[in-house]
Amino acid sequence: MTSSLDVRPGERGPAAAMTLAVALVLLAYYFLKPARDSLFLAQASPAQLPLAFVVSALVAAPVAGLHARLARRWPLPRVTVLTLALLAATLPPLRLLLETDLPGVPYLLYAWAGLVG
After folding, report:
1. How far apart are CA 34 and CA 26, in angstroms?
2. For the stretch 60-98, what's the b/e string if a residue is b when 16 or more beta carbons lie within 10 angstroms of its beta carbon?
3. Concatenated DSSP letters for 55-77?
4. Is residue 106 packed enough to be buried (19+ CB in 10 Å), middle (13-18) or exposed (0-12)?
């Protein structure tokens, strides 16, 4: 199978690590997306979903620009690990914010989950 994928000797370890990383990110997103949707709809109405999409785009645009800038300066594996670590580190505070009745929290959760996916 490695010959059909053009994986050369010495590349198997990094290829396996990248495959595992992608699989874990996708798995996390597949768990996160339904939770995001249900938590958003429990705290906000379906009529507010278009605004959530706009907020997500407004958050994603500068974050994507920053990510691209970092990827030009640092090796991509370092940027990937930093990004995943930052997303993981922001999850516990976000979870605590969900316990509050602050009005912007559903939008923050929606935008954060959009960054993951």
Report:
1. 13
2. eeeeeeeeeeeeeeeeeeebbeebeeebeeeeeeeeeee
3. HHHHHHHHHHHHHHHHHHHS-HH
4. buried
DSSP letter at 46 equals: G
Per-residue pLDDT reduced to its tens digit, 87-106: 899 999 999 998 998 889 99
Note the pLDDT tens digit of each residue in 20-78: 988 988 998 899 999 999 989 998 899 999 999 999 999 999 999 999 999 999 998 89
Sequence ranges of the domains in the chain: 12-116
Query: Is residue 1 over pLDDT 60?
Result: no
Estimate the crossing angle of helix 76-98 against helix 49-73, to 10 degrees: 150
